[in-house]
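Why do we bother with holo predictions? Because pocket geometry can differ from the apo form. Keep that in mind while you read this record for NAP.
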Amino acid sequence: MQSYRLEGSNGTECLVMQDEVRPEPKPHEIVVRVRATSLNRRDTMIINGTYPLTPRRGIVPLSDGAGEIVAIGDAVTRFAIGDRVTGSYFARWIDGRINAGLIDQLGCTLDGMLTEYAILDEQWAVRLPDHLDWHEAATLTCAGVTAWNAVTGAGIPKPGQWVLVIGSGGVALFALQFAKLLGCRVVAVTSRAGKANRLRTLGADLVVSSTDLPEWGAAVREQTGGIDLVIETGGPATFAQSLIASTLYGHIVLLTLQDPKGRSIEMPAALYQRSLATISRIFVGSRTDLEAMLRAVSTHRLKPVVDKVFPFAQAAEAYRYFQQGDVFGKVVIDGS
Ligand SMILES: NC(=O)c1ccc[n+]([C@@H]2O[C@H](COP(=O)([O-])OP(=O)(O)OC[C@H]3O[C@@H](n4cnc5c(N)ncnc54)[C@H](OP(=O)(O)O)[C@@H]3O)[C@@H](O)[C@H]2O)c1
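The structure, written out:
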């Protein structure tokens, strides 16, 4: 079988594809024939040496992937051969709160999914909804769970309330879709006005071009009466505007402090003084969160947005395409 391994942190140069022996499962393990994987911002940070958690040398990259089980260990009880599964981001975090003993991540400190056959403990995987094809099914582990927790984790927004999402990456588009499932109204902020129609088709009630209107906060607040929940994926370019757009007691889920260039958020004192907004953080989510999200995806037959699919042999091109930033949804690597 073929597998990618990470050797160093010098960008896509450190992605090495090699021939390996197909793994045999230990008693509690499953072997997954990986049919597709997808990229997240953290995967580009990992290959560039800017991710806060140090990856294990020689790790198989990528947390997100989907495939069918082709072998199981003697003691496996959760799955059977043929089941369609995906992995859980913090593989050991099953439920409740995270702690220092649960921070291992697929594709960083544990072997991930950019391989033809992945080996996982049976506790690290969940079954996939039937209505998703392999490419769609490979998008959920990181961006899907993050968006699910960002939208539902701190008190589910009520129907009719306003949710604001920023950009067109995986997290923003899943957050838009989940907010619409809950009956919320959504403002989508994009730096590329050409994406407005696609954002409206996904359900955005109002689309704002941050290129045409960099100081969009006051206009959004005026048009909506104030945003109830902001899914803040923009960083320093958008944080102040998110605060201005929010209601007095709004909620901002802060998913990043930095933009792709490494610049950090600043909090202007005048803004701080006139807002009572709650600012919270999340770390993706647990396996229970992944299962809850998949129930919603399955019930509503929600289709993740796939931007572009690359062949397995062109994983480095997929990383480079993702890194240039002009994406709409998830960048997928085919594994079939
Ligand atoms: N805390 C957590 O648990 C957690 C989990 C997952 C992700 N995150 C964070 O959430 C953020 C979103 O992640 P993501 O994977 O969904 O998407 P992403 O790749 O970071 O976002 C892509 C979108 O950002 C906008 N963008 C504008 N300028 C960009 C540039 N120079 N480079 C790249 N993108 C640019 C683009 O939207 P427009 O063209 O529409 O402007 C693009 O479609 C990241 O900062 C990530 O680190 C946090």
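The mean pLDDT is 96.
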